[in-house]
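Continuing the batch. This is chain 6 of the set; chains 1 through 5 are on the previous pages. Same settings as before, nothing changed between runs. Recording input and output for traceability.
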Amino acid sequence: MREELVKILNDVKDGKLDVHEALDKLRLLPYDDLFFAKVDHHRALRKGVPEVIYCPGKTDDQLLKISRSIWESGTSVIGTRCTPAQFDVLAREFKEAKYYEEARIFFIPRGNVAKSRSKVTVITAGTSDIPVAEEAAIASECMGLSVQRIYDVGVAGIHRLFPYIEQMNSSAVIIVVAGMEGALPGIVAGFTDKPVIAVPTSVGYGAQIGGFSALLTMLNCCAGGVAVVNIDNGFGAAYFAYTIINQIDRG
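Output for chain 6:
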């Protein structure tokens, strides 16, 4: 890997590659081989966001080493599904680290996070959906997005949504988080021309089947412009929103 990197740099120096061609090649390099993990340091170059750490299943030592590797590469560090105990280990080494307990996210900022001109609106059907919504909202903020929140406006009292329609339409992307029957994303999509990212949650009674009922409703949505992520996947919704807004900002 080191030899390939040196070759690319020498080709630029010798005039065999221009800067843009070199950047295209560098997008695939390098990664830091920690044996138990291969940390992708050029993901930020390819995707606009550094590699994000999924904390469950990692030992404290593994989590620390991966975080160090990302931090030393010069980018911020984001971790999802982090427990308070895991964060305590990180906080002893990284004094800048922040923990968002409801979202289960830790964030170690590296410099100032650039803020997007565009906004993402995060909406929940009910209060019980807020932890998943906060994962989406906090992850979005860590990626540099401006976030506005509209909580507890589900279909049992849909009139609660109507005062926020103008606010919804002021955003570039809308994330809608709902459990139970999962109908809210389709209703929101009927009131806006913005892309809607639907997040089913595992909130609900018996036949809701751990979010599967809401997932099927969202996949069968009759309103156009709705994309669906996996059950309880607030982070996936945030990443998708970032991808859309990044294209807007670059355009």
